[in-house]
Design a protein that fits this description.
Saccharopine dehydrogenase-like protein; 2 domains; 7-stranded mixed beta sheet; 430 residues; Rossmann fold; globular; Sacchrp_dh-like_C; 17 helices; alpha/beta; Dihydrodipicolinate Reductase, domain 2
């Protein structure tokens, strides 16, 4: 396999390391990588534990990606004959990299979408889906919104809903509620994702579906208590707007109620900042030469994400004591028995948790955050097995639709592989 990454960061290093491991195990040969970056020296910092991977890797350093997008033929030598182009940079490059993949007859994958736009909310479609026909015509696939959530969570939801279709009685899904936990206990303020991105996302009014209607509420204005499996505390979770809402509504239009909530101490910090009005775009400095808002000041002074080496040092010194990511989908089901006209309601809970974060120090993934690690593992596993079964796939594909395309045995293999990377799969009928 030959893989191109655009942008190198915490998640990219996890995906590439996993792909190499999977290739060595299943194909007996490491993958050949090309990393398209703006700064080779900074990019290589993310692989300080993976010197073997760099032996089968090349780097293409460019001033900016736009140079490639505008003149792809200039880079034919570097970009031809690759199996997949992966956008591990900002979602704003999704369409450009997709078009580049089509130019070089390659498959495509990305990690997230740019959804905080009016046209996305109006259409309830992702920008990447505009290239559906082009990928189908070339018999290529484009996997979008990969990772742990969205990504593996959608995959598990899709698998369970697909299995419900085979039951010998009428089943109606009345609600899907996805709850995410992001919890870290440390002596210092440490962010597991970009604070700038988080501020923009959490300041956006939460959206959810109720009785098939799109509803909007004020950020952090509503919460509910939720008990995550294995996690010792009951916590408050708050509605937020992420890709899962659009994706699940597209794939399962008959489900009238869909909601996504997030909780944990990282979100509690953001709630406090929001309630102190520190996300405000109101200008606190305004003159002829510049305009500075409270929001922009907070984004600049809030602690930045740390390098992998610093994160590893924090774990060694026990600055980071504990961290856990969990994602649980509660699927509300109504079963009808035609003979006696009886209806039974139940909740099927499925999802995953990752709590062995400090154990990563013993692995090539040391230095990952507790969010970038499961995100990269989830994306990497779905990408690897999609490439193995690429003859089954074409067009733009959402993660929840993969289980119906794959066989049951392959779906089980994917879940077992997640388990081998310390990600626990959870399933219970309530």
């Amino acid at each position: 396999m030959r893989v191109v990454f655009f942008g190198v960061g915490a998640v990219c290093s996890v995906i590439s390391t996993l792909l190499c491991e999977q290739s060595n195990k299943n194909l007996k040969d490491c993958i050949e990588f090309l990393f398209v970056v703006r700064d080779i020296k900074k990019a290589k910092m993310h692989f300080y534990k993976n010197s073997e991977l760099l032996e089968s890797s090349n780097f293409l350093e460019v001033d900016n990606f736009e140079n490639i997008f505008k003149n792809p033929k200039k880079y034919t030598k570097e970009l031809q004959d690759f199996d997949i182009f992966i956008n591990s940079s900002t979602p704003s490059y999704n369409l450009d990299i997709m078009k580049l993949a089509l130019e070089f007859n390659s498959n495509y994958a990305d990690l997230a979408s740019d959804i905080y736009k009016n046209d996305i909310l109006t259409s309830l479609k992702f920008e990447q889906q505009s290239l559906e026909n082009e990928f189908k015509k070339r018999d290529l696939f484009a996997l979008i919104n990969l990772g742990v959530s969205p990504g593996i969570t959608n995959f598990l939801i899709g698998e369970r809903i697909n299995s419900l279709k085979n039951l010998p009685y009428e089943v109606k899904i009345t609600k899907i509620e996805l709850n995410l936990l992001e919890e870290i206990q440390s002596k210092k303020l440490i962010f597991s994702w970009s604070p700038k991105v988080a501020i923009d996302e959490l300041a956006f009014s939460p959206i959810f579906f109720k009785n098939n209607q799109l509803k909007t509420i004020e950020p952090f204005s509503k919460s509910k208590l939720y008990k995550f499996p294995y996690f010792r505390n009951i916590i408050d979770v708050y509605p937020v707007f992420q890709e899962e809402l659009i994706s699940l509504k597209q794939s399962f239009p008959n489900v009238e109620n869909i909601r996504l909530n997030i909780g944990g101490n990282e979100l509690e910090l953001m709630k406090n900042l929001y309630q102190l009005n520190l996300f405000s775009n109101r200008y606190c400095i305004e003159n002829e030469s510049e305009k500075i808002s409270i929001n922009s000041i907070i984004k600049n002074i809030i602690p930045k994400m740390k390098s992998p080496e610093i994160i590893e040092d924090y774990i060694k010194k026990k600055t980071i004591k504990y961290a856990e990511f969990s994602a649980i989908a509660d699927i509300y089901i109504e079963i009808s028995y035609p003979k006696n006209k009886k209806k039974i309601k139940s909740i099927e809970s499925i999802g995953l948790s990752f709590s062995k974060y400090t154990d990563l120090i013993k692995t090539p993934y040391s230095g990952s955050t507790y969010v970038s690690y499961p995100t990269g593992i989830g994306a990497g596993i779905l990408i690897f097995y999609s490439l193995l079964k690429k003859e089954l796939l074409s067009g733009v594909i959402l993660s929840e639709n993969l289980p119906a395309i794959f066989s049951n045995s392959l779906n089980d293999t994917i879940k077992r592989e997640l388990g081998s990377y310390k990600i626990n799969i959870y399933s219970q009928i309530k």
